[in-house]
Amino acid sequence: MNKRLSLSAIGHATSLFLLITFVVCVGFDLLFPGHAMYEAWQKLLPGFHWLSWESFFIGALESYSYGWYFALIWVPIYNYIIVRKTNDD
């Protein structure tokens, strides 16, 4: 049984998760400005400022990119460990 993870699947899934989360949070901030979290996004996403279309697309692109960053680091580490564990058994 193949227990290795697909870099492509994890990369796209994680990136879409972070992108959807970003869009939902921006929507939440627009609906409930008293509970806005945009200051956190400004610290995490370089170039993101509240709120213009250009800034929104920069934040969306960076959110998607962070998903790939995670996948590019995590998946090879996981696959390496699972291969070593399988070979030790």
What does this structure look like?
- The structure is a single chain.
- Helices cover 76% and strands 0% of the residues.
- The chain is mainly alpha-helical and 89 residues long.
- The protein is elongated.
- The two termini are 14 Å apart.
Q: Label the overall shape.
A: elongated
Detail the poorly predicted runs. Answer: none
Query: What structural class do helix, strand and pairing data support?
Result: mainly alpha
Largest sheet: none
Beta fraction: under 5%
Mean pLDDT, as a whole number? Answer: 92
- Cα distance spanning the termini: 14 Å
Tell me the helix content.
over 70%
Number of strands: 0
- DSSP helical segment count: 3
Please write out the topology.
Layout: H1 7-31, H2 38-44, H3 53-88
Helix pairs in contact: 1-3
Summary?
The chain has 89 residues and is mostly helical. Helices cover 76% and strands 0% of the residues.
Question: Which short descriptors sum up this protein?
Answer:
89 residues, elongated, 76% helix, 3 helices
